[in-house]
Design goal:
The protein is built from 21 helices and no strands. The chain has helices at about 10-15, 30, 35-45, 45-55, 65-80, 90-95, 100-105, 105-130, 130-145, 155-170, 170-180, 190-215, 220-240, 255-265, 270-295, 305-310, 315-320, 325-350, 355-385, 390-420, 420-450. The radius of gyration is 22 Å and the shape is globular. It starts with 10 loop residues before the first helix and ends in a 5-residue tail after the last helix.
Length: about 450
């Protein structure tokens, strides 16, 4: 979850951290930039671009603080709502008398709804505007959030959560595009960093707050508190966010959109990056969906508030993601992915031991490895795509949240059947998949190198 969380939030912000020296020959796209087209377009638009850049928001300038706070609050609301039930699954299981795998659908439905709708929402924002789509998305999501505490059955709760996830898809689909259009290029990374911080704070605080509130008043009050808080964030967002000045509406052309999507899915490197993102999130979604069940049982028997506080481990992920660029500089992209996979696998193994301290250490390693792998893979998507970068990033987010949904349900089902070792087994298989895909990329890079320079064969 991007950094945290949170998904969608590292793609643009992390891209500059991947150095040009790591332009490995995984795909022809890295080696053949369309410099002629770029030069022609740049010559034609020089005067207009200079004028546009001069009117964009900069730190300390008009509207910048309002914009930063607005998108920070939008990030908080989005990820607090998206994962509001994750720390509460044992309580939901108890009230509805269902197994962990059934209760986990309250998480999987929300992330699945986001995964399915993030690409259509990105297209709608091109036609109707970033601010309009973000406002509508938050309005629908918080409205549904106020209904969630009153769900009479698990089935109704799952449907409401799916609707909530679908509505929230409008935020990651539009926020980064708004920033790219309205903020000065020199301030863009900082602005995106604030949005990322909101994602991280929302994802973490939503779980921690619900844990402590539920311990005293139950899960329904806990998700109600998150819903009311999200209403406040949504209202402040709409009041604070400056009107766009540089958005130019486009037409909804499904044929063009589908052509771009086909191009991205036909790229072997992008397919590998999408799969890697999904596999890392499978582990993360499974572990954090099930950990509450494990810690409420013997020999731990921890109270709900303490279990909710476990999610403070997310802070480790924020640090891990922010330093991923340096690891790529030292090890290369594939080396950084091997290290992230190994760290995650080590954490899974350590978490098998029946000690609270060692389980916590395992979660630290899992979280650090996941966020590092997610940062490397998502930033490589932006670097690899030579056109339609918004759609390339949206496809990565779709794969990422599909991984979350799969991890939540499969990890919980494995826990119900085999206990914690079953969930760990699912995670280790996913990390083997990451290693296998990365090895495939290494072979493809070597083959491309031999093709360009047969003397090295």
């Amino acid at each position: 979850m991007n950094p945290a969380d949170t998904g969608a939030s590292t793609t643009v912000g992390a891209a500059p951290a991947v150095p040009a020296a790591d332009a490995t020959p995984d795909t022809a796209a890295d080696a053949t930039p369309d410099t002629t087209a770029d030069a022609t377009a740049g010559t034609a638009d020089t005067g207009r671009a200079a004028s546009s850049a001069g009117s964009r928001m900069t730190p300390g300038g008009p509207g910048y603080r309002r914009m930063s706070l607005a998108l920070f609050l939008a990030g908080v609301a989005t990820f607090a709502l998206l994962y509001s039930t994750q720390a509460l699954l044992p309580l939901i299981s108890g009230e509805f008398h269902v197994a962990a795998g059934d209760a986990s659908w309250t998480v999987a439905a929300a992330t699945g709804g986001l995964a399915v709708f993030v690409l259509p929402m990105s297209a709608l924002s091109e036609r109707f505007g970033r601010r309009a789509v973000m406002t509508a998305s938050l309005a629908v999501a918080v409205s549904v959030g106020l209904l969630v505490p009153f769900a009479p059955s698990l089935g109704v709760l799952v449907v409401l959560r799916a609707l909530q996830g679908a509505a929230l898809a409008g935020l990651p689909a539009s926020a980064q595009a708004y920033l790219a259009e309205e903020v000065s290029p020199k301030a863009l990374v900082t602005a995106i960093g604030l949005f990322v911080a909101g994602n991280s704070v929302g994802g973490m605080s939503g779980r921690v707050i619900t844990g402590w509130v539920a311990q005293e008043w139950g899960w329904r009050v806990a998700v109600g508190v998150i819903g009311v808080g999200a209403v406040g964030c949504a209202v402040a967002f709409r009041v604070l966010l400056p009107a766009p000045r540089h958005f130019r509406a486009g037409s909804l052309r499904p044929r063009v959109l589908l052509g771009t999507v086909r191009d991205h899915l036909a790229d072997p490197l992008l397919r590998r990056l999408y799969a890697i993102g999904a596999l890392f999130m499978t582990v993360f979604g499974g572990v954090y969906t099930v950990i509450g069940y494990r810690l409420t049982e013997a020999p731990f028997s921890l109270p709900q508030g303490i279990i909710g506080s476990i999610f403070l481990v997310y802070l480790v992920g924020t640090v891990s993601a922010s330093t991923a660029g340096r690891r790529v500089g030292r090890l290369g992209r594939r080396g950084a992915l091997y290290l992230a996979g190994a760290t995650t696998a080590a954490g899974l193994l350590v978490s098998l031991l029946n000690s609270v301290v060692l389980v916590l250490l395992g979660l630290v390693l899992i979280t650090a490895g996941f966020f590092a792998g997610h940062a490397v893979a998502s930033s490589a998507v932006s670097k690899t795509a030579t056109h339609g970068r918004a759609q390339a990033s949206a496809l990565y987010q779709s794969a990422y949240y599909i991984g979350s949904s799969v991890g939540s349900t499969v990890g919980a089902t494995a826990f119900h059947a085999q206990g914690w070792p079953g969930t760990v087994g699912v995670g280790l298989l996913a990390m083997l998949g990451v290693v296998a895909i990365t090895l495939l990329g290494t072979r493809a890079a070597k083959a491309a190198a031999r093709h360009r320079d047969p003397a090295t064969a």
